[in-house]
Design goal:
The chain has one domain: Uracil-DNA Glycosylase, subunit E, CATH 3.40.470. The longest helix has 11 residues. It contains 7 helices and 7 strands; from the N terminus they run E-E-H-H-H-E-E-E-H-E-H-E-H-H. It has 172 residues and is an alpha/beta fold. It is globular and about 50 Å long.
Length: 172
């Protein structure tokens, strides 16, 4: 059965595009990105800015737009078993260049998002950086890697030391 992903979250003030692969089962049930409470995405980005993790879909969307973060998945629709990226088949790719305009930096949440982007959008691939997946299944996740990448995009926040307040003891 073919499953549809989500529309992108972005506006004219977006300073970075963060790309995942495809929404998990829990995200699809919630109707928004990174809906599994065990996924570390929301904790990683909100802690960089010294903020609490947004609790609702509405607050998550508001946070992204207020902070200049565009969010989307490389795969717009596909066939998938559960939430495993390895089971994605017959993917229809999102129109990533529509959101990744100009020189917008791109942060890829995990190897699958990075591979799909670089294999299919070579013209924007040089702007992409692969980060460790925030999935709870990834034992190599690092808040520090995420915060360092965000600091390159948001140097004022990094210079103010905001993101150091958000570092946790979970495998920095």
């Amino acid at each position: 059965m073919r499953i549809e992903g989500f529309d992108p979250v972005f506006d004219g003030n977006s300073r970075v595009l963060i790309l995942g692969s495809f929404p998990s089962v829990k995200s699809r049930a919630e109707g928004f990105y990174y809906g599994n409470p065990q996924n570390r995405f929301w904790r990683a980005v909100s802690s960089f800015f010294g903020e609490e993790t947004p609790a609702t879909v509405e607050k998550k969307r508001e946070f992204l737009l207020r902070r200049g973060i565009a969010l989307w998945d490389v795969v717009q629709s596909c066939e998938i078993v559960g939430s495993a990226d390895a089971s994605i088949s017959a993917p229809a790719l999102a129109d990533i260049p529509r959101v990744a305009k100009g020189e917008t930096p791109i942060l890829c949440n995990g190897a699958t998002a990075y591979r799909l982007l670089t294999d299919n959008f070579p013209e924007i691939a040089p702007r992409a950086q692969k980060l460790p997946s925030t999935s709870p299944a990834n034992p190599r996740f690092s808040f520090a890697a995420w915060h360092t990448a965000l600091a390159r995009v948001f140097p004022d926040e990094a210079a103010a030391g905001i993101f150091t307040k958000g570092l946790t003891s979970e495998k920095n």
